[in-house]
Structures are given as structure tokens and as C-alpha cells.
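Figure 3 (text version): C-alpha cells given as input.
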């Protein structure tokens, strides 16, 4: 019996442990748990990694002039559509408060090297180009500055797009009023002769010619939207296009509305929300073949001319105000009639304005009233 007992193998031990069986068994259990923990950690890391790889990348849009009246609405619209939005604005006329919180902001000029580098490196899907010197009177007083910002700034953009080789679509905001001059009978068609009367309008036409060149020669993807007189919330009361904002301010301050000449001069007033939607459609939809000037140009307006006197009366009704309308001498050089034909935008973009003039004016007046009361910034 003693020999049988002595022939049994000694107890198994785990390296680094005592020779006692209970302690060895405990160590094996700990090793198994540790291995299981490592395996689960790797699985979690693998799942997280796959999630990053499969996560869809948001399309990227750059809005130049995105701190301005129209540009900030365009930025809002793209954000609502799920885009990653970046904004370039030198704040010469734009306001930091207009920049949407979810957008990335770059305080630089479109004429700068920093701007060109941004375009080259970020490789945007879309660039909505709204940055410009937009005051007609300033363009007359200083045409060199107007051309530097508008023409050279756009060339800086297009050369950077060409260098990026990213297939970026550029949507340029032109003008549907001043571009055609006074030698056509409205409503103006895209193909009408163009003979602008101001350096501002000449710069817009020059840019459109450059865009057509970049399309034909370099294959770049660019569209021009020729806006009517855009109005709406956040509008600044500067220049003729700001007449709605000027009248809203005067009504709120109980001051007379000043109308120059007989007040029968017409403009095509289009609501800013409709303009932002048109910009998005042009940025994302199919386009005609690249070709000559006007091939990829679209008038964006209402197709209806509204007189300044009518604007004054409609705002009075929207505000429930009876402030008087006063007439001042006619301003030399002012166009008498200006509105656009929008059939091409309807057919080519599937776009039509959705906000009536009465609704848009009421909304705009309410915004100005809320701003005066401190309800909005």
C-alpha cells in the first residue's frame, strides 16, 4: 500500500505559485478572466473602429460672405440639409452674430492667400460664392476696389478650385437687375443683351464670363444665379436693395417713408428663404452642359415687378401703421423698370418662389420689430 501511495504523481503547480492545489486553481481562474477581458476589449475596439469606417462623411460646403444677410440664410439652409458648413467672411459688411453656431468660421478675405489655401486643402463639395463688394455707389466712387474684391477675389477662388482637383461645384451669386442695364424691356431673359451701367454690374458680368471660360477650358463646374432684389430678416438698410429694411425701420420709429421720384419704378422683390433654396438646388441638382455665357445662368426672382409705392403701402398694412409717404426728387441714373423672367429656373432647376410678397413683407417686418424690442439679436 505504501508503494502504491508513493507512486502517485506529485500535485500540479502553476508557475510562480505555491505548490498547494487551491491556490493553483485560483490562479488559473484569474488567467482565464484576464484573457476574456482582453478579448472583449479587442472586440469593442474593433466595433468602434468599424463604426468610424462606416460612418458616412457629411458633404462639405463653403459659403463665402456667410456672415452677411443672404449668405447666413444660405448657410442655415445647408445645415438643415445635413451639410458640414464652413464660412469665410472678412466682416467688412457681414456680422459675426449672423454666423450659425454649427458652422465653422474663418475671418479672412477672399482675396487672401489664406483663403486660397483653405479651398485647395479642404476640397469642398460645394462653394456658394456670395462674398462681394455690393454697393453700386461705392463701385462708382472706387471701381478699383470693386474689381479687386469682386473680380480678383473670384479668380483667387477659381484658381484654388482648379488646383484642388476636387470636382467642386461653384454657385456664384450674380445680379438679375443691374446686369441687363436699361436697354431691354422687362421681364429680362437670361439671353438678353447685357450692357451694365455701373462698375458693380460690370464686375458681375466679368465674373460670369470667367466662369464660362473655366467651364469650357478647364472643365470646372460653375453656375451663376442672377438674383432679383432680395429682402427678408437680417437685411441691412444699405443701398437700393435695402428699401424694405429702410421702410421697416422708419415705420418702427414712426417716421415718414421717403420715396424718390414718382415711386412707380419697379423691382423684382424675392424673399431670402426662396433664394437660399434656389442656391441649394443649384448646388446639388443636374446642370446643363458647360458652354457660353448664359448656358448655366438662371434668373432668381418672382417674375413680377413691384413699385416702390406698392412696397410702402404693403408694409404699412403689415405693420398696421399710417406713417405718411413723402416724395423726394428723382435720383439720376436710377432704373425705372427692372424684373426678370424665371421660366428657365422653373424648367431647369425645378424652382419657383414659394413665399408671397405679402407674407414675406409681414415676416420681415415682424423680425425687425422683434429685433427692436430685443427679442432677436
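Below: residues designed for each position.
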Amino acid at each position: 500500500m505504501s508503494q502504491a501511495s508513493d507512486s502517485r504523481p506529485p500535485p500540479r503547480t502553476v508557475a510562480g505559485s505555491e505548490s498547494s492545489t487551491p491556490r493553483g486553481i485560483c490562479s488559473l481562474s484569474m488567467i482565464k478572466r484576464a484573457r476574456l477581458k482582453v478579448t472583449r476589449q479587442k472586440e469593442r475596439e474593433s466595433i468602434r473602429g468599424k463604426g468610424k469606417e462606416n460612418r458616412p462623411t457629411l458633404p462639405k460646403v463653403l459659403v463665402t460672405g456667410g456672415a452677411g444677410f443672404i449668405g447666413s440664410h444660405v448657410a442655415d439652409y445647408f445645415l438643415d440639409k445635413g451639410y458640414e458648413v464652413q464660412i469665410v467672411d472678412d466682416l467688412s459688411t457681414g456680422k459675426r452674430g449672423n454666423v450659425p453656431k454649427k458652422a465653422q468660421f474663418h475671418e479672412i478675405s477672399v482675396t487672401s492667400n489664406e483663403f486660397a489655401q483653405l479651398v485647395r486643402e479642404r476640397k469642398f463639395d460645394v462653394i456658394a460664392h456670395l462674398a462681394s463688394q455690393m454697393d453700386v455707389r461705392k463701385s462708382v466712387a472706387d471701381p478699383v476696389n470693386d474689381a479687386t474684391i469682386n473680380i480678383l477675389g473670384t479668380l483667387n477662388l477659381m484658381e484654388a478650385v482648379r488646383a484642388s482637383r476636387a470636382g467642386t461645384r461653384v454657385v456664384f451669386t450674380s445680379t438679375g437687375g443691374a446686369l441687363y442695364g436699361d436697354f431691354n424691356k422687362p421681364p429680362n431673359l437670361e439671353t438678353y443683351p447685357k450692357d451694365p451701367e455701373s462698375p458693380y454690374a460690370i464686375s458681375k458680368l466679368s465674373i460670369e464670363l470667367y466662369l464660362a471660360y473655366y467651364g469650357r477650358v478647364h472643365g470646372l463646374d460653375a453656375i451663376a444665379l442672377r438674383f432679383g432684389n432680395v429682402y427678408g430678416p437680417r437685411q441691412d438698410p444699405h443701398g437700393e436693395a435695402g428699401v424694405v429694411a429702410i421702410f421697416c425701420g422708419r415705420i418702427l420709429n414712426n417716421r415718414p417713408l421717403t420715396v424718390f421720384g414718382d415711386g412707380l419704378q419697379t423691382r423684382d422683390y424675392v424673399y431670402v428663404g426662396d433664394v437660399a433654396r434656389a442656391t441649394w438646388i443649384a448646388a446639388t441638382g443636374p446642370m446643363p452642359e458647360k458652354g457660353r455665357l448664359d448656358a448655366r445662368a438662371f434668373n432668381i426672382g418672382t417674375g413680377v415687378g413691384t413699385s416702390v409705392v406698392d412696397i410702402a403701402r404693403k408694409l404699412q398694412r403689415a405693420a398696421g401703421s399710417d406713417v405718411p409717404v413723402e416724395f423726394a426728387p428723382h435720383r439720376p441714373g436710377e432704373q425705372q423698370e427692372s424684373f426678370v423672367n424665371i421660366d428657365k429656373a422653373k424648367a431647369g432647376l425645378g424652382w419657383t418662389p414659394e413665399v408671397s410678397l405679402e407674407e414675406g413683407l409681414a415676416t420681415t417686418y415682424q423680425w425687425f420689430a422683434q429685433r427692436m424690442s430685443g427679442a432677436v439679436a
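Residues 139 and 145 are 7 Å apart (CA to CA).
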